Amino acid sequence: MNTRAAPIASAASASSSSSSFLATPAARDDAGKLVLRVSVGVLMLLHGIFKLSAGVGFISGMLAKAGLPGGLAYLVFVGEIVAPLLMIAGVWTRAAAAVVVINMLVAFGLVHMADLFALTKQGGWALELQGLYLFGALSVALMGAGRLSVAGPNGRWN
């Protein structure tokens, strides 16, 4: 007698919980992954767009000063335009995020080493913006894109 009531009750509760987009932990995880990869991707992309108009002369000079070929500066377009676009779309997301991580590590090494342990007047880390890019991209590389991506959860490198 109770065996018929239990399936009906569980079916009713399942239908009411599926009516909300973020009703399940998996859906919330996917939404969080979407927010993280799009926000890191868009913010990094803005830096790349600026470098398209301003050029990479500054980076080329820093590379030459470090004894590296100045032509490597053009790789910044991969790390700040191509990789963020792939992250935003959710295609090859882990690989794209890893490229952003490498891009940020190079930026730390070439430009920001003097401020690595510096604090601002307000007590924050002097490199908090760069740190957020680095650790946000690292998080995306570790977690992947989630279901809410062009390639979907089973896409290569997602």
Keywords:
mainly alpha; 158 residues; 66% helix
Morphology: globular
Distance between the termini: 47 Å
The main β sheet shows up as: none
Order of helices and strands: HHHHHH
Let me know the average pLDDT: 88
Rounded to an integer, what's the Rg over CA atoms? Answer: 21 Å
Could you name the ranges where pLDDT drops below 50 across 5 or more consecutive residues? 9-17
Strand content: under 5%
Helix content: 55-70%
The computed structural class is mainly alpha
Q: Number of helix segments?
A: 6
Layout of SSEs?
Blueprint: H1 2-17, H2 25-54, H3 57-65, H4 76-89, H5 93-112, H6 128-143
Task: Summarize the model shown.
With 158 residues, this protein is mainly α. The chain has six helices and no strands. Residues 9-17 have low confidence and may be disordered.
